[in-house]
Design brief:
CATH superfamily of the largest domain: Beta Polymerase, domain 2
Distance between the termini: 82 Å
Number of helices: 20
Largest sheet: 7 strands, mixed
Strand content: 5-15%
Helix content: 40-55%
CATH class of the largest domain: Alpha Beta
Number of domains: 4
Strand order of the largest sheet: 3-4-5-2-1-8-9
Structural class: alpha+beta
């Protein structure tokens, strides 16, 4: 029985206009990758990717003829972004690998969907759909997707050696789309464990981006544990310890807290370890603060006061994970109490008796007394000192 995708995104006139621009010019057009995979899983599609036999220059011509804006975002790799109705559509020419070195591939344009599918990573990512939504499955990936079985296309070892980042992508895709109860593909794990040396060739930026995407999954703990078992975690994050991650995920669910990949990274890696991933400055600052406060002595209410209820939640969850302390309504109440508190003393209240460094120290001392009192001491009581 032919399967047809009927999601709203595929019916959009703006998206159909892009497909029509290609097909009216004699080219093929197939939706591919994440948008097709997610539609079949009942998940939201974040990006719309289209594969075609038209070469990039021809895609630009056809888009212009249809009055659409074409941006050569990766034209040397066969990719043109066509904007229609304010929606970007990434259009890539069918490709086949000519040469790979474990980090990047030299590709040649192809004329067939089968060759384009054969160079992709996992069977669930080699699913295509025609503009009318009719599914095309050149490699038989649909049964794997339905079973949530993340499986490499062809020989896993060969696929990994084409791009060693695929070892990390395997765990990321399993965290997002795999069947946790069914476990991990033994052939994939064997191939990954046999190619650990190749991970050294990857840029730290690529590794960091992949790990953060993995940690953003609903429950990344089983995948991270499998990474550790295969030797991958130690290879990309030497010294990382994931023992608190599963506890943290459980606490997040109890506190109804959104997934935060930086908070989860803080659960498994110190700032010194995490900085090897070339995180952004703000990400590393957040991670450092979370770790320091989680291991510090500030009360939960003080964390709420200093960082707000949402900000203090990060440190509180992390501290509970490290201590294996359950989440409770009392913790949530303490965070809210601190977040709503306002220190009643201002600098001008202490001038001219205190100035300069002495003024700052006195303010800090009074604030510490006020926090220790549970935010109960008033302005008059504090100034009476």
């Amino acid at each position: 029985m032919t399967q047809i995708i009927t999601d709203d995104w595929i019916k959009l006139q703006a998206t159909q206009d892009v497909c029509k621009a290609l097909t009216d010019g004699g080219a093929q057009a197939f939706f591919v990758g994440g948008c097709v995979r997610n539609a079949l899983l009942g998940a939201e599609a974040s990006d719309i990717d289209i594969a075609t036999d038209a070469h990039p220059e021809r895609v630009v011509e056809l888009a212009a003829a249809a009055g659409l804006k074409a941006i050569p975002t990766g034209i040397e790799h066969g990719t043109v972004t066509v904007v229609s109705g304010g929606i970007p559509h990434e259009i890539t020419t069918f490709r086949r690998d000519v040469k790979t070195d474990g980090r990047r591939a030299t590709v040649a344009f192809s004329d067939t969907v089968s060759e384009d599918a054969a160079r992709r990573d996992f069977t669930m990512n080699a699913l295509y759909a025609r503009p009318d939504g009719t599914l095309l499955d050149p490699l038989g990936g649909l049964p794997d997707l339905n079973a949530r079985h993340v499986r490499f296309i062809g020989q896993a070892k060969g696929r990994i050696r084409e791009d060693y980042l695929r070892s990390l992508r395997y765990f990321r895709f399993h965290a997002w789309y795999g069947d946790a109860a069914a476990g991990f593909d033994p052939d994939a794990l064997d191939a990954i464990a046999s190619n650990l040396d190749g991970l050294e060739r990857l840029s730290r930026e690529r590794v960091g981006a992949e790990i953060l995407k993995l940690l953003a999954a609903p429950d990344p703990a089983p995948a991270i544990a499998a990474m550790r078992g295969a030797g991958v975690l130690g290879a990309v994050l030497p010294g990382a310890d994931d023992r608190s991650l599963a506890v943290l995920v459980s606490l997040e669910q109890a506190a109804d807290a959104a997934a935060d990949p930086v908070r989860r990274l803080a659960a498994i890696a110190s700032p010194e370890i995490a900085k090897t991933l070339r995180l952004s400055r703000s990400q590393l600052q957040r991670l450092t603060r979370m770790r320091d406060e989680a291991m510090g002595t500030a009360s939960v209410a003080e964390l709420g006061y200093r960082y707000g209820a949402e900000g203090g939640l990060h440190e509180t969850l992390l501290r509970c994970a490290f201590l294996e302390h359950p989440w409770s309504d009392d913790l949530a109440t303490a965070l809210q109490k601190g977040a709503g508190a306002s220190f009643p003393v201002r600098a001008q209240d202490l001038i001219p008796k205190f100035t300069g460094p002495a003024l700052g120290k006195k303010l800090s001392d009074l604030e510490a007394r006020w926090i220790a009192s549970g935010f109960t001491l008033g302005r008059a009581q504090l100034l009476a000192e």
